[in-house]
Structure formats: C-alpha cells, structure tokens
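SAMPLE LOG
Freezer: B-3
Tube label: C17
Construct: single chain, 255 aa
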Amino acid sequence: MNDNVRSAARVLDLLELLSEAEEGLSLAHATEGLGAPKSSTLMLLRTLTARGYALRGEGDRYRLHPVFLAKGFGWGGRAARLVGVAEPVMRGVADRIGETVILGVLTRIGSVRLVAKAVATQDIRYDIELGREVPSYCTATGRVLLAGMAADARAALLDRIVIDAVTDRTMTDRATIEAEVAVADARGLSIVSEEFAIGGTGIAVPVTLSDGSVIAALNAGCVTPRLAGREEGIVTALREGAATIAARFEHRGVA
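STRUCTURE (predicted):
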C-alpha cells in the first residue's frame, strides 16, 4: 500500500471510529484505534475539525458532526464492508438449511437494522425488507445483540426503548425480557417464536470478533410449522457461518 492510499485509509478509519464513539473519541483512543503515531492522529483530528466533519468538545473529546450522523454517515465503511464479506457466506447457509438468513446490527436507538439477507428458495419462506428497523426486545437477532452489550449499557438502552406488543405472543415485561437476554448470553444463541411475526421463528447467533466484541447477529428466519426437529442443524450452520464471517472480516483488516 503506497503512502497516499495509506493516508486515505486512515482518514476513513478515523471517520468510522468517530461515528461509533457515542461519548466522543479521545486522542489516546483514536491513536490506539488507528495504530498510528499520536502526532499523525492529532493532525488528522484537527483537519477534520477545521473542515467541519468533527467537533472538539469538553475534555478534548472529538465527535462526528451531527449532520453526518443524521444523514446516516455512520452506516458506511465498517458495516458496509461487513455486508460484503457476509453475503456469500449467508447464501451458502441459506441453501444448506432451506431457510432465509438475515444479518442484523444494533442501532444507536436500540432497534435492529437488517442489513443483508439471503432468501430461501422454497415456495413458502420467510422474507423481510432490507434496511428495515425492527425491535430488539422481541426478536432473536435483537436479544443476541443485547446480550453482547456491557450490562450497564444494555440497561441504559432498555430504559430508552418503548416496549409494545407486536403480536399476541410478544413478551413485554422488562424483567422477562432481561431474563431471555441472559439466556441468550449463556447459550450463545436465541430462539424467538412468533413474538415478532406470527408463523415465523427466528434463530440467531452472534458474529463475534477475536476480541470478544459482537458486531452483528446472524439469524435464520424460519417458517414455524417446518422447524420441529431441525433446530440443532440450523444452529450449527449459523454458528459456522458466523465464525466464517468474523474471520473474513478480520482477515481483511477492517475490524
């Protein structure tokens, strides 16, 4: 990689770090995240601030300008590249299990954004629009992502979420939801039947990087009547797929 390309990559990496830093990004954390010299990182931060891309706030913490977050800037880069490595893996998993496979990420407001899918080829199948945001509290994908959060951050997020029934089977009691998230954390998977869509059951596992961070959840959207007795095979396929996605994501140097 030549110097010009390396410099451009560092700017993009820094913008992505800023987009993910809800409490602001310190110079120390930016330097660590980029793996660059402190002096070079400071120059990049000052340039982004001078050009209006970033704001320098209290405690010398830098934030992405709100206009870019409002326009969805934070969705670019890291997450978009995740989709790039995930899609072929998801297609293989969907063909293997005969059910639709969906990739979801957690948003800042606590919903789940569906960012990629591989739709089953069977005549009767589960499907959902890409880009849609669905509740985290009543979906398998959401519970896996909630389980991947630090306890205090998860509690704060649940405090902000309005919990309403989506179907007549949706759990709406906060303590019950937290118990289900704890089960998802312990098992490394979540199975949610008809709490979000009648006739559909979600089975989700985390996409976990080598540092233990959960960056997404891989979900099988199953037609409930044909699921009985197939759960173990579906979970195995999902776990293998999630591990492959995580490995390829890190191998490309985008973690």
